[in-house]
Amino acid sequence: MERLSGYTAPGAKAYAAMAADASAGQWPVTLFYRCRNVPGGSAIHAPMPQPIEVFDGVYSIGDDANNVWAIDTAEGIILIDALSNEEDAKRVIVENMRKLKLDPARIRYILITHNHGDHYGGAAYLKSLSGAHLAMSREDWEGKALGAPMPVKAADDFYLTDGQKITLGGRTISVVLTPGHTPGTVSLVFPVTDKGQPHVASLFGGQGSPKNLAALQQFRKSLDHFADVTDAMQADVVLSNHTVGDDGLTKVALLAKRKPGQPNPYVAGREGVIRYSALWQACLSADIDQIAWNAAARPDAVK
Ligand SMILES: [Zn+2]
Fold first, then answer.
1. Pfam families attached here (predicted)?
2. Is the pLDDT of residue 211 over 90?
3. How many angstroms separate the alpha carbon of residue 208 from the centre of ligand 1?
4. Which end of the chain has less neighbouring CB within 10 Å, N or C?
């Protein structure tokens, strides 16, 4: 039985097939969402995730749609994203931190990947609890936000820029500007350890494909830029700020059952990170091809 994907253009279908090959069954949820319900993918069927330590001092503390990452250091906590509003920040982030014995008052930095409300809505409240510095790209902080009111940039907040390094308590996070999902989406790369074994985590900051061709092409270029950085830093771990971005609900459930000596499900290996990157690149190329094909069929519909 053939399952339908959202692509009708022959070229887009070919790209989608490449994406499915690249996934090799490793990220079925990501493939499904990233690549317009491509065959071989699947939707999410999982309960609300439990908060959990994924790498040494690196915690998954989000909900079933948006993940939030807490990175604990001797000098405080770095948070990646902040959910939709104060209520979600209290109910999910603060509650999960308490379950993990992480003190929300110790948050020092809140890095916001982009200006969609499900990523920054709880940031102002979390800053009020902790005095943390908020950080987002200038493009997105000054741009048109989608969702809750954007937190006002205080004197101790700052912009995230391409190539920037943020260091706290011996941990360093590299910032990569990857516009496309929004004009100032940022992605992050940082070393982690798994029971002492060193790895390098990559987290791409934007998810859904934009609707217009220029933004899709920018997104596609950003994937190349991000791949260059993850190659240079030898990233071997895929994390995401959305559970659909890294098959996070499956991985958290696997991790909860992990026995000593078993592999960490988030470690993809270098080869896995390269395939993950190829999956995204192929899906973006499919989106672009589909738009071009639609436009050729209906020249007045070109955007
Ligand atoms: Zn978004």
1. Lactamase_B
2. no
3. 7
4. N
* Structure confidence by residue, pLDDT tens digits, 81-107: 999 999 999 999 999 999 999 999 999
Q: Distance from the CA of 24 to the center of ligand 1, in angstroms?
A: 26
**C-alpha of residue 236 to centroid of ligand 1, in Å:** 24
DSSP for residue 299? G
Tokens describing residue 6: 């959202």
Domains in the chain (CATH in brackets) are 10-298 (3.60.15.10)
| CA 222 / ligand 1 centre spacing (Å) | 15
Residues with CB under 5 A from ligand 1 (ion): 116
pLDDT tens for residues 271-295? Answer: 999 999 999 999 999 999 999 999 8
pLDDT band at 1 (very low <50, low <70, confident <90, very high): very low
CA of 229 to the centre of ligand 1 (A): 22
